[in-house]
């Protein structure tokens, strides 16, 4: 897995080159990058590779922060909504 495979359009590379880039801009770039990531590539492995390359020496860069946040496992999505969400629990109707 090369950097060119991970960041085909250079979004992450370019974000590190933009002087004065902000957190919201980095988050937007990260989402664009993540949507273009090949299905066969796990995001966690790709982010680890990006951090190993770009994060060293750029610890205070907003993109480094965003990439580190991207490493956090969001867990399993939970179903929300339905009757129990409207009435507050699994109580039987009166």
Write the layout of secondary structure elements.
Elements: H1 3-6, H2 11-17, H3 23-36, H4 43-55, H5 62-70, H6 82-87
Helix pairs in contact: 3-5, 4-5
Give a verbal description of the structure.
This protein has 94 residues and is an all-alpha fold. The protein has one domain. 56% of the residues lie in helices and 0% in strands. The protein contains six helices and no strands. It has helices at 3-6, 11-17, 23-36, 43-55, 62-70, 82-87. The chain is globular, with a radius of gyration of 19 Å. The termini are far apart. 16% of the residues are buried. The model has no long low-confidence stretch (mean pLDDT 85).
Features:
about 90 residues; mainly alpha; about 55% helix
Shape: globular
Domain module count: 1
Output the number of helix runs: 6
**Sequence stretches where pLDDT stays below 50 over 5 or more residues:** none
**Fraction of helical residues:** 55-70%
Tell me the span between the first and last alpha carbons: 59 Å
Quaternary state, please? single chain
* Broad structural category: mainly alpha
β-sheet strand percentage? under 5%
Order of helices and strands: HHHHHH
**What's the average pLDDT?**
85
Write a brief structural summary.
The protein is mainly α and 94 residues long. 56% of the residues lie in helices and 0% in strands.
């Amino acid at each position: 897995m090369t950097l060119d495979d991970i960041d085909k359009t250079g979004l992450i590379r370019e974000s590190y080159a933009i002087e004065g880039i902000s957190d919201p801009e980095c988050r937007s770039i990260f989402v664009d990058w993540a949507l273009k990531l090949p299905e066969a590539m796990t995001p966690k492995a790709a982010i680890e590779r990006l951090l190993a390359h770009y994060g060293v020496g750029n610890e205070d860069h907003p993109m480094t922060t965003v990439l580190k946040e991207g490493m956090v496992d969001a867990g399993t999505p939970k179903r929300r909504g339905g009757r129990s969400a409207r009435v507050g629990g699994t109580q039987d109707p009166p």
